[in-house]
Amino acid sequence: MKMMLIDIFVIGLALIFIRFWWRYWSVTGGGPKNLPPGPPGLPLVGNLIQVILQRRHFIFIIRELRKKYGPIFTMQMGQRTMVIVTDSKLIHEALVQRGPDFASRPPDSPIRLLFSVGKCAINSAEYGPLWRTLRKNFVTELITPTRVKQCSWIRKWAIENHMKRIKREAFENGFLEVMSNCRLTVCSILICLCFGAKISEERIKTIESILKDVMMITSPQLPDFLPVLTPLFRRQMKEAKALRKKQLECLVPLIKNRRAFVEKGENPNQEMVSPIGAAYVDSLFGLEPPTRGPLGDEEYVTLCSEAISAGTDTSATTVEWAMLHLVMNQEIQEKLYQEIIDCVGKDGEIKEEDVEKMPYLEAIVKETFRRHPPGHFLLSHAATKDTELAGYTIPAGVYVEIYTAWITEDPDIWSDPSEFRPERFLHGDGVGVDVTGTRAVKMLPFGAGRRICPAWNLGILHINLLIAKMVQAFKWLPVPDAPPDPAETYAFTVVMKNPLRAVILPRV
Ligand code: HEM
């Protein structure tokens, strides 16, 4: 009898302990740590299982959580603490007013570290001297107005190829696919900007496909949230190493050829076309970032791949969504066509300076960024030191995720936000809106503050040129009996689930 009482007492104590333990660990945020509150989770795994069970991408889940948890909340994803910021004023405060406080990046997974050679890339480097040197070099060597002008022939060459290719595809199939063609064209421009080389379409396609695989494999996976599971995911690491090898084998020969051209003037198959100093990689050859020393082939591959990947999907996605609206709304397309021919004529060449004189084109592109931001989040940010935001504590190293899609859907900021109406940027709620978010945040397709996309104007130039040339040459129509489907899906950027296909008719 005495033994039984002791047993009951011990079991009772254990139950009380489990209850408290469960309560403590299932609460997300709040508590003594003063993190923003968030959805309750399970001990050890936090909200991870709930997210996995939804079988939808994180960006679509956040859209609903925001309604319940508001401007700032915490998600406990296994061992990873994520603070999600969704409010335009808080985002402006974090990124612009207190820019340096939130300008760092959180720790990376082992697979990401493999591809960034230990964070030696602009997008992943922590806020500090390495990031500063890499970013400054990128800006001065790749995207100053003089360099952009010097390299305009690359865009002319790539877009001429693009126009021939889409004409051929439409002739052969009766329609063409917009996204794949735009990806290939933008990728060919960026490859030439990086390596100064004109290479065959086949090689461009190989690089494009390898870099897409790199983006996919470096996207968050289960062991990133629960590192204890890493040993079970050895196969992923093996695959990542094999892919890295493939990436090096594909790009290092290009770098070696460029180096031979820069140092000895060798150019056996006349592949190198940009003058010495005009390719991005030329500037990396002599670069010695503090804390890192001279860079080698691994770093050159990482930094050039970063520029190609960062600029390809983002721009091609925007063109695809813009063309969707032009196909679905012939009035908008006609208005744009009129603007183009008023500016350069029916057969006149559209030069880079011409697209800057097309306000309706600019309005269409801005409305596309607003209605279809290529990324619904920025890249993950991190606080440089423990700090506070909205009265909550934000410890250094937690993932600060800036959810930008809500800002452009917010009816308090935009009237009829779900409508695609470029005119709003000419005379409406979009007039004077700053896409860089410096003055205030009403949209931020490129981020804002210290980590803003350093090549945002180059991205816009590629988008403007592609749309203007395609609309000048052809009338774009839906494929009969197969109207475009505007459903979204996530593939690094938020793209059309069923890629846009269109019929094109030469303008007469
Ligand atoms: C429409 C085109 C583009 C869009 C929408 C876009 C968007 C973005 C966004 C949202 C970020 C993250 C900002 C943040 O974390 O706060 C970013 C960063 C970056 N982008 Fe772009 N981008 C575009 C084109 C390009 C192009 C053409 C290049 C290169 C040639 C490029 C290179 C970069 C780099 C290197 C970073 C990292 C910056 C840093 O961490 O300091 N982007 N971009």
From TrEMBL:
Pfam families: p450 (PF00067). CDD domains: CYP77_89 (cd11075). GO terms for molecular function: heme binding; iron ion binding; oxidoreductase activity, acting on paired donors, with incorporation or reduction of molecular oxygen, NAD(P)H as one donor, and incorporation of one atom of oxygen. It is a single-pass membrane protein. Keywords: Heme, Iron, Membrane, Metal-binding, Monooxygenase, Oxidoreductase, Transmembrane, Transmembrane helix. It is found in: Membrane. The keyword Disulfide bond does not apply. The chain crosses the membrane at residues 5-22. Heme binds at residue 453. The keyword Cell membrane does not apply. InterPro entries: Cyt_P450, Cyt_P450_CS, Cyt_P450_E_grp-I, Cyt_P450_sf, Plant_metabolite_P450s. Its cofactor is heme. GO terms for cellular component: membrane. Belongs to the cytochrome P450 family. This is Cytochrome P450. The lineage of its organism: Eukaryota, Viridiplantae, Streptophyta, Embryophyta, Tracheophyta.
